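Supplementary Note 3. Input sequence used for the single-chain structure prediction.
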Amino acid sequence: MVVEDDALIALDIVSLLEDMGHEVVAEAADAVTAWELAEGGPPDLALVDIRLAKNTDGGKLARKLYDQLGVRSLFVSGSITDDFRVAMAAINPVGFLGKPLTRHTLGEALRSATHH
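The predicted structure, written as discrete structure tokens, is reproduced below.
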């Protein structure tokens, strides 16, 4: 699942994932839509931006995905701070990637996710 409010960045992430052989089962620009999609069929992993459309919070979404559905998140954002990393540690995130995202950094993060 890709949760990103910038349509061009979301398209880029989806393309990278599909090029690497992954299936993107859902896309959303805000936390409410993402939650509704995840409830309908939890994804294996969520790639989540921190600041989302409709003034929604990717951190809160990631916590809810983990606590209620067991879905881990990989944060992809230009807004990652040390405080955010500490706050999210309890939900066992796959990792934190800055923007712009590259095929290499995404691939490394996904490989580490599959080895946990």
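Residues 7-19 form the longest helix (13 residues). The radius of gyration is 13 Å.
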